[in-house]
Amino acid sequence: MAGDLLDNQGRGDVRWSFPPIHPEGRKFGLIAVVISLGFLFGLDWEIVGWPLLLLSAGVFAFFRDPERVVPQDDRVIVAPADGLVTLIKQVEPPKELMIDDGTEHSGLQPGPVTRISIFMSVFDVHINRAPVAGTIRRVIYIPGSFVDAGLDKASEENERQHILIERMDGLKIGFTQIAGLVARRIVPFVKPGDTVGVGQRVGLIRFGSRVDVYLPAGTDSKVMLGQRIIAGETVLAEIGTQKLIEGVAQ
User: Fold this and answer.
1) Is this model's pTM higher than 0.70 or not?
2) Residues 56, 155, 209, 221: which is the catalytic one?
3) Average pLDDT of every residue of the chain
4) How many other CB atoms sit within 10 Å of the CB of residue 244?
5) In this structure, is the dihedral angle defined by the CA atoms of residues 31, 33, 35 and 41, taken in order, positive or negative?
6) What is the CA angle 153-157-161, rounded to 5?
7) Over 70: is that where the pLDDT of 249 sits?
8) Residue-range domain boundaries for the chain
9) Cα dihedral 31/32/33/35 (nearest 10)
10) Among 122, 153, 203, 223, which one is least packed by beta carbons within 10 Å?
């Protein structure tokens, strides 16, 4: 039953259940259900109504919001998004995360850092989570185009939203939510000044998209190209650790 204590020694009782639906998505699912029922019972167009009813279930599934077991280790940066690692490269951070924004809080330092790009298909969970605990220093929305989010140029051309988090020790982590071909709305759950825990929900992107994470200088990726990762659980990097990771594509 809800509220039962579970632990890593096998104690507790758990049953499978469909993950909760985030409130942001309930209205879209209900609208799809109403339209499909209108075709089925109002117009008696079963050839349209049944596929739409199936699509309604897909809409609810898109906005599912499962619980995650978040690593409790100050040395690690966790994945902010579910999806596929499609790009890992050395780049300069976005200028919006580096320039003086007129506040007393500085941005990221200039210089090449490792960027990890995570592509989310329409089948992935689209709730984005904080990669580290700290204070939100910047939330910057940039309008743009909607090219394929899997392309490298999407980081600079697509509609996007930059978020900068400062840890208690002063270390800053930046990441960017990027709209794609299907995605048409980036929804933030946080604002500058908010305090977040590692793995806390910070926003979502509707219907297929990408998230770029900018690791601190002197930190390399602990994930590989082609690896599927889980928001709030997969460790992207260990701060200050540089090590070549090799694997075999299956």
Assistant:
1) yes
2) 209
3) 85
4) 5
5) negative
6) 110
7) no
8) 7-65, 76-238
9) 90
10) 153
Scan for tokens 């998230």, then name that residue. Answer: 211
Q: Looking at domain 76-238, which of 2.40.160, 1.10.760, 2.70.70, 1.10.260 is its CATH number?
A: 2.70.70
| 145 annotated active-site | no
Map residue 64 onto helix, strand or coil: strand
Question: Which tokens go with 199?
Answer: 């793995």
Strand order in the sheet with 195-196: 195-196, 134-142, 160-166, 172-179, 209-214, 113-120, 83-91, 228-229
User: Which pLDDT score is estimated for 1?
Assistant: 43
Predicted local confidence at residue 123, as pLDDT: 86
On the question of pLDDT at 238 being above 70, the answer is yes
Q: Is the pLDDT of residue 180 over 80?
A: no
